Amino acid sequence: MDNYINVNKKGILMYQTIDNKVVDNVTYYTKGRAWVEINLKHLKCNIKSLKSLLPNNCEIIAVIKANAYSIGDITFSKVLNENGINNFAVATVVEAINLRKHDIKGEILIFGYTHPFDFDLLIDFDLTQTVIDYEYAKLLDSYGKQIKVHIKIDTGMHRLGELSSNLLDIERIYQCNNLIIQGSYTHLCVSNSLDPSDIAYTQLQINNFYHVINHLKSYGYNPGKLHIQSSYGILNYPTNQCDAVRCGILLHGVFSKENETTKLKISLNPILSIKARIVIIKSILKGDPVGYNRNFVSTDTMRISVISIGYADGIPRNLSNGHVIVNGVKAPIIGDICMDQIIIDITHIHNVKIGDIVTLLGQDGNEIITAEEIAAKCNTITNELIACLGDRLEHIYLDE
Predict the structure, then answer these.
(1) Which CATH number fits the domain that encloses residue 287?
(2) What is residue 14's predicted lDDT score, i.e. its pLDDT?
(3) In this structure, are strands 329-334 and 342-345 parallel, antiparallel, or unpaired?
(4) Do 285 and 220 share a structural domain?
(5) What is the pLDDT of residue 24?
(6) What values do phi and psi take at 283, rounded to 5?
(7) pLDDT for 76-126, tens place per residue?
(8) Catalytic residue (choose from 28, 29, 219, 292)
(9) Percent of the chain whose predicted confidence (pLDDT) is above 90
(10) Which site among 176, 227, 288, 313 is 20 to 30 Å from 357 CA-CA?
């Protein structure tokens, strides 16, 4: 029997059972409308697979911004801590404080901008701030108290970071008295691509980074922990061995896109499933429209059903050409996806009942719908697909 560990939105263990949940003395059916299941056993397998690709002295920085891509940053991080990962990266100071308040151990690096009004929080919660350029370094330094930082070098992505060509300003960052420099890093913008021009550009970025690092070292500056590779950098640039790598989407057991080719192969186990229930079944006639805007019209008599999930739960509205799985059989989505419901064609599926569980992402019987497949249909990447899952979805953690 599956063992479900259920955690509330703040990551606090509330009960360990199969179906029922108690909150403020009110019991309700956990899997009553729509939910996600997160397989923690698969997460642990993905951690092992990633570690097997890295040198012994190379650390993993787990990227868990946006609530660990909506999976649940507290539970996710606790599993990572338990499995030897003690470096985390988030987007905001609020995300970082949430981890600290739930006893997540290790360095927590903030990738994004923190307003000077919040610099005191960096110290109070023992956080590490990214220095996004020289001007920002001066702001941090002028705060007057020592702050842990990583220095971001812009080697060609032209997002955050001081330009690698601005060696004088980069030196000045390392001269700031109140910055405790824990590390230095850059971001490779096309490390996922094996196109020759993209490989050349990535190598240019790597060369730019090490030119800066070697320049700093020649003047006696300590750049701290170095990290260049994110998930695809690990797989496509394995010889570029730094002190740490940043892992995000690979921990979830998926690639960003369908049918991706990488230099290194890795065994991954998807950790996420999305499920909902059938709430009504009805028959319609030939010529009947379905859903908003009458964008689907029946070409014959049909049996259709409505499932209790929609775009307010993070299901992309342009997945209207997609499928779900009912009783081990794929069923097409018909009509426009609504905010709270999706309509499906079950004409060809037998013994469908109200209350049956429908799989939108994951496996049921021999049928599988992958995150990569859904992302391709919606012209996006799995990172966005997963991160946009809504707060209304209950999180059920499966640890078999």
Answers:
(1) 2.40.37.10
(2) 40
(3) antiparallel
(4) no
(5) 56
(6) -105, 145
(7) 999 999 999 999 999 999 999 999 999 999 999 999 999 999 999 999 999
(8) 292
(9) 90
(10) 288
Query: pLDDT class for 4, splitting at 50, 70, 90?
Result: very low
* pLDDT for the residue numbered 31: 83
Residue 286: active-site member = no
Whether residues 122 and 66 fall in one domain: yes
3 state SS of 342: strand
208/13: higher pLDDT: 208
Cα distance between residue 275 and residue 42, in whole Å: 18
CB 99 within 8 A of CB 62: no
* Residue 96 located in a structural domain: yes
Q: Tokens 């008599």, residue?
A: 301
Least Cα distance to 113 among 96, 97, 92, 133 occurs for 92
CA 221, CA 156: separation in Å to the nearest integer?
23
Q: Are residues 230 and 321 located together in one domain of the fold?
A: no
CATH, residue 214? 3.20.20.10
Domain shared by 232 and 291, yes or no = no
259 class by beta-carbon count within 10 Å (0-12 exposed, 13-18 middle, 19+ buried): exposed
Give the burial class of 215: count Cβ atoms within 10 A of its Cβ; 0-12 exposed, 13-18 middle, 19 or more buried: middle
Residues 330 and 246 in one domain: no
pTM, to two decimals: 0.90
Average pLDDT of the residues in 311-333: 96
Considering the domain boundaries, does residue 266 fall inside one? no
Largest CA distance in the chain: 79
Catalytic residue among 65, 78, 148, 152: 65
- What is the number of domains present in the chain? 2
The average pLDDT across 160-184 equals 97
Closest by CA position to 216, among listed 258, 181, 243: 181
Q: Distance (Å, rounded) from C-alpha 274 to C-alpha 268?
A: 18
Q: What is the mean pLDDT of residues 387-399?
A: 93
Residue 215 within any structural domain of the chain: yes
Please tell me whether residues 77 and 124 are part of one structural domain.
yes
- Could you give the CA distance from residue 30 to residue 118 in angstroms, rounded to a whole number? 38
Q: Are both 180 and 302 inside the same structural domain?
A: no
Q: How far is CA 134 from CA 152, 163, 337, in A?
A: 10, 10, 47
257 assigned to active site = no
| 130 lies in the same domain as 222 | yes
The whole domain housing 326 covers 272-369
Beta bridge partners of 283: 303
